[in-house]
Hints:
With 358 residues, the chain is mostly helical. Helix content is 79%, strand content 0%.
Amino acid sequence: MMAAAAIVRMGTHWLRVLDSSQGWLARDHIAQTMRLAAQSPATWTLAARLALRLHPVMMRAGLYAMWARDLSSVLAHPPSDQALALEVRAALGATLIAGAQWEEAREHLTQVQRAYRQHGNWLKVAQAEYDLATLAWNRGEWRRSVWLARTAIRRVVRQATRDAAARHLYSRALDLIGLALWRMETPRRALRYLQRALALRAPEDQRGVGHVHHHLMLVYTALGDAEAALEHAAQARALFEACADREGLAYVWSDVSDVYRLQNDVARAREALARAYALWRELQDPAGLADFYRHLGLVETLAGEYATARAHLAYARQLWSTIGEPREVARCDEALHAITDSFDCASPAKKEIAIHDE
């Protein structure tokens, strides 16, 4: 095993790298150093610091299963710093949410929430409650998500005027409530929360501001205001391009096709989806591709290409089913049922192979 001094030198080097734009390229090497550092009490704190600094990089990369294993391996060794251990466990909970491992995520986040409550660290309690609200949102438990996010807000609202971390959490909780209300088909209520979230978000948080603009685009689309939706889509794209968030950019291009469908503009909807597809193929994200094919099916339905639409929607359904997302499967079923049942769907089966196995 590498000597502790060598691990410290390497870990210190990687912490400097994570301060630069090169952290993305070195993530596998940094994770390896983190795993080595976790094995010794003398270097466990360094492992935890590397884990917390590397966490945003791994989440943006979408490496949820691998990263959850790495974080678990850090926690498997006796921690020399209990406060850092709690932060690593919270990061593990967030990673498990992203990886759709709901029950494990709930277990870790509840443990984190309980520990911070015992310590009287109410900002951290609120963060755990926000993470649990995110878990509820991902499970389709919209009302519970709203309740938990509001609970988090009540804990930080007084601090938000003087504490940047509290203000950031306040904004994220408002954003999450807005998304939940949009899913609950109350877009006017959602709009108020998202506008407040945008006002609170720090301008330098380009990725976060971009996501709020994206969510505002979704709400304005639901309200039938294509002009406002396209304005927010443009702002979201510019911000995601500036911070090189390809996943965020891909989702915006997919979702903006819904705005063009509002305008009966099939050509622009197809063009937007072509841009999304290029990004999703590069990212190799199954959920992103599933989302793309559902949108493409909806556009082809509008175009009157019912056979092609069914092929795309059926493929999206298959992908969502493999991932284990019953709510998204139901959305595909709903779109499939909306297409006339009188159409003979025997012919597109061959086309589907050509479309999806390219």
